[in-house]
Recover the amino acids of this structure.
């Protein structure tokens, strides 16, 4: 019964969001959160005060994804209002009018690099409006971006899902540093193989099979220019595969598109391209370049800004009474600790969360660059605030659901799901390990949190079944990455940036297909690795 009632809310959520006359996410998610609350209170017998403390914690947690979404919307509105987006459309059209080339440059290589730099759903939030601005249908580009942005995720935000996702296991001595490196190596190999297929499926959501076949050489040039360096770097480092691989792939893709290498010339106009003044192009590109530079400078741990922004040394503290203790660190991390005297706490990192820096800062710097009037600048901010109202309600519901499902440690609803699935399929766990990681990303919104949540479960199953631990944990990481396709937070973010209403269920029904295929590919590659390397 524990397993049934743990899975029931997730099954009901999916049903409500994909059925005919589907519930919008800002209704379905708070409703499911309420059901989980009642289950925790009356069936699992958790304390009322613990549940309420987790609700406060969830509301604090919401500020991370909602501020990223707000920043992305704000940046997109500034680019449109300033005319920079029109210039970028002109420039990309001059590089190649071929839609496949544009989709691979922005939807694949550009997001690959952004994922390596930032994560947090930022790549989808930035790439989607650019593609929509090029004339592609909004819902189609949201689907494409979600599916494309899976291969680099295990090494997103300079390797956070790998080095932090398994940190608990590493710190406890359960796994060694060498095993973490091996997890990265195996993850990269599985992603490399999946990367030969998944981007093509993503393209099919936007263009026809005929167009894909006509441009297949360019598609593989773009894919491999990202994934070959990615695979090579992962053999000795798990922080930079996606960032460096994406940067190389972006340069190669743009160069190949400019030369027309591997691209069909059918349907392209013979009229000369309208020249674009270099100064105009640099000015239009400056916000995006500034965004990328700031992301890179604040994410690489060898540089001082990352440590500065994550400085948890106490700077200010005062009591909020029964609500808890409020603390501000020197790195401007705002925390509420000991909520309702339960020991539960949560925080919001103002500087490191990719919202104020780089999005808001870039927009503020761009206002004088494009000489935007006070009225236009004010409208950019106010309209962006209006646009995040429904996503905020959806994310509050999602975060409360997640926090409540994680109450109970080894006996939590999430752990019950994980152990239930592993017990049922233990002897065939290589086939199912990645799907547990995907479930973690689906409800938590993060490959990193999925690895933190289910890493111990995966280790336990591998140990008891006599399976290679590094291989199983690599499948967990790959699963968390492929789960990005169906991650509620990312779907909400993509729809919110474009103002697409009540489409989350429709998108989920489409992205689950390539996610399932990704899991099959991961299992097949895992079996080969087990036979060739671990036997």
């Amino acid at each position: 019964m524990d397993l049934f009632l743990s899975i029931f809310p997730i099954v009901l959520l999916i049903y409500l969001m994909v059925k005919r006359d589907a519930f919008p996410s800002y209704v379905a998610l708070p409703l499911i959160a309420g059901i989980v609350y009642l289950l925790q209170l009356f069936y699992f017998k958790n304390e009322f005060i613990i549940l309420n403390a987790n609700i406060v914690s969830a509301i604090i947690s919401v500020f991370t994804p909602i501020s990223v979404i707000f920043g992305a919307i704000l940046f997109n509105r500034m680019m449109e209002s300033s005319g920079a987006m029109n210039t970028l459309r002109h420039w990309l059209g001059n590089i190649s009018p071929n839609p496949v080339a544009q989709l691979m440059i922005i939807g694949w290589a550009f997001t690959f690099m952004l994922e390596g730099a930032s994560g947090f759903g930022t790549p989808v939030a930035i790439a989607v409006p650019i593609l929509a601005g090029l004339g592609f249908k909004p819902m189609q580009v949201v689907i494409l971006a979600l599916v494309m942005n899976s291969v680099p995720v295990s090494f997103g935000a300079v390797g956070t899902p790998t080095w932090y996702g398994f940190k608990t296991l590493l710190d406890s001595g359960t796994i060694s540093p060498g095993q973490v490196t091996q997890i990265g190596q195996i993850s990269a190999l599985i992603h490399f193989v999946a990367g030969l297929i998944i981007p093509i499926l993503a393209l099919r959501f936007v263009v026809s099979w005929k167009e894909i076949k006509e441009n297949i050489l360019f598609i593989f040039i773009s894919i491999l220019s990202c994934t070959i360096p990615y695979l090579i770097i992962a053999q000795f480092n798990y922080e930079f595969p996606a960032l460096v691989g994406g940067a190389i792939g972006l340069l190669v893709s743009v160069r190949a598109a400019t030369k027309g290498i591997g691209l069909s010339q059918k349907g392209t106009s013979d009229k000369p391209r309208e020249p674009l003044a270099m100064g105009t192009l640099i000015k239009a590109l400056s916000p995006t370049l500034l965004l990328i530079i700031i992301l890179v400078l604040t994410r690489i741990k060898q540089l001082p800004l990352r440590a500065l922004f994550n400085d948890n040394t106490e700077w200010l503290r005062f009591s909020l009474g029964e609500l808890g203790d409020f603390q501000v660190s020197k790195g401007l991390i705002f925390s509420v600790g000991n909520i309702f005297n339960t020991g539960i706490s949560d925080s919001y990192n103002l500087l490191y969360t990719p919202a104020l820096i780089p999005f808001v800062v870039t927009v503020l710097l761009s206002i004088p660059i494009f000489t935007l009037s006070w009225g236009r600048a004010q409208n950019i901010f106010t309209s962006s605030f209006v646009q995040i109202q429904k996503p905020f309600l959806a994310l509050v519901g999602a975060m409360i659901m997640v926090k409540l499902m994680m109450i109970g440690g080894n006996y939590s609803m999430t752990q019950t799901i994980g152990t239930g699935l592993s017990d049922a399929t233990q002897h065939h766990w290589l086939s199912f390990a990645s799907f547990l990681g995907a479930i973690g990303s689906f409800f938590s919104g993060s490959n990193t949190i999925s690895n933190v949540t289910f890493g111990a479960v995966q280790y336990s199953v591998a140990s008891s079944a006599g399976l290679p631990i590094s291989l199983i944990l690599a499948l967990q990481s790959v699963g968390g990455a492929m789960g990005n396709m169906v991650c509620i937070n990312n779907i909400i973010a993509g729809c919110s940036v474009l103002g697409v209403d009540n489409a989350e269920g429709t998108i989920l029904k489409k992205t689950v297909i390539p996610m399932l295929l990704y899991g099959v590919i991961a299992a097949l590659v895992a079996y080969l690795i087990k036979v060739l390397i671990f036997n």
Summary: The first strand starts at residue 314 and ends at 319. The radius of gyration is 23 Å.
